[in-house]
Predict the structure.
Amino acid sequence: MISISILNEDSVSITDSLIVLPALVAAIAAILLIVIISGGKKTHGDWVTDTWVSRELEDEMLSRLERERDEASMQDIGSKWARMEMEHLESKHSEE
């Protein structure tokens, strides 16, 4: 049940949160959009929203993602090697 009382003596009252919630979400989205657009001319990494929304050029982003993937792959190899070495030492220890 939605009830809006616009002419209620001296005040405007909205009694249903189903109307207030979308208006609040729209206001937050508008503020965020203004902040993102206002940082458009700054270099990447200098604006407050750069940790949330990437403004890198496509080539820069691809090279950064490839570097991160390679680093993660090398870390994964190190952990797999350590696990294999641990299993080998445990098997040697159990044989003794």
User: Anything to note?
Assistant: The radius of gyration is 28 Å.
